Amino acid sequence: MPSGQGPARRSTRPGTAPGRRRGFAHRLWARAASAPPRRPGRFAGPPAESTTPGLRRGGPAHRTRAPRGPLRISGRVAALGVVLFALLLAYAYPLRVYLAQQAEIARLEADQREQRERIQRLAEEVARWNDDEYVKDQALQRLLLTEVGSRVYVVGIDPTVTDGPADDAPPPPWYEQVWTSLQTADEPPTP
Question: What are the pLDDT digits (tens) for 29-50?
Answer without folding.
Answer: 676 666 666 655 555 555 555 5
